[in-house]
Amino acid sequence: MKPQYFVAILFATSLYWMYLLYAPFLLSITIAALLAISTSNIQDFFENKTGSKFSAALISSILLGVLFFVPLGYFLATLTIKLNTLDQISVKNLESFILNFMNTPPPYLEFLQPYIQETISDIDVKGITSKTISFAGSIGAFSASFLKNAFLVIVFYFFAQYNGETIVEYLKRVVQVSVEEANTLTKELSSVMSVVFYSIIINAMFQGVLFGVAISFFGYDGILFGIMYGFASLIPVVGGTLMWFPFMMYEFYLGNNFNAFFIALYSIIMISIIADTFIKPIIIKEINNRLLKEDDTKLNELVIFFAIIAGLATFGFWGMILGPAITAFFLTILKIFEARTADCAT
């Protein structure tokens, strides 16, 4: 047996065992690596200010935890407490009200009845009470699991920021591509992920603030429900509806018809139509133009927009990071393949 074959077998075997060893952490490692790529400019800024790669990685990790995971942790913890202190009688009364409202809406809303029936045809309204109680019991376990994964992402993010440059340079030497192609792949993936990361954060914060400020005028917790709306806005098509529709129904239940109408119209017109449909692509385009100065590294903002939606639909919450990364990687590989084809033709 030739030595290179023996080494290849050893490499394949070790790769298989490495996969088995780190399989439970692969998603966290992937997300951490992509987040590190997205925020490499922040790492460079802190490194220039502190003169220490370790300090810069530590500050970047703390900042990520504060800006991204702390609000979500607050949301999950508060939601857990509120769900476990629900009054079951009030929930049953609300369930009965929703059923009556759907079957016999007020005269001024009768024209909406077909749309309401179609929208919630797949929802088991009669099971709201039991499902709410069941969800209240499981949300605590989900919160603990998510916070554990978030902690792992931050830990891996720190190591990615601290050792990322060394790892990238090593991969450039190992992978059988030219230095120019490796630099192209690294630069374009980093550029797109930076645009995606900042776009997601700004859009979620923007829509969350719009909803939180409005809902606080009716006596609700603006911070909690603003955070909830920010994360719900990441869900394609129905994200915002999951937030404002329950508030509208609850206000109708309390007899506050004006409040119910205001919440619905404000959420649909101001947030769903103006903010999400028109302002969101503008924000992505503005970030794209500000971060990426070279035309050859820019990715169309609509491609980024649909990549985020596709990622969320396919992979869930973390798909907002994975979707654009996969798209950018694929398009960059196509560009490299095109360049190689052109070289062969000449």
From TrEMBL:
Alphabetized InterPro entries for the sequence: AI-2E-like (IPR002549)
Lineage: superkingdom: Bacteria
Pfam families assigned to the protein according to its UniProt record, in alphabetical order: AI-2E_transport
Compartments where located: Membrane
TM ranges: 6-35, 56-77, 139-160, 195-217, 223-247, 259-283, 303-331
Keyword Membrane part of the UniProt annotation: yes
Chief place where the protein resides: membrane
Keyword Transmembrane annotated: yes
GO cellular component: membrane
Keywords assigned by UniProt, alphabetized: Membrane, Transmembrane, Transmembrane helix
Its membrane topology: Multi-pass membrane protein
Family (UniProt): Belongs to the autoinducer-2 exporter (AI-2E) (TC 2.A.86) family.
Protein name: AI-2E family transporter
Organism per entry: Sulfurimonas lithotrophica
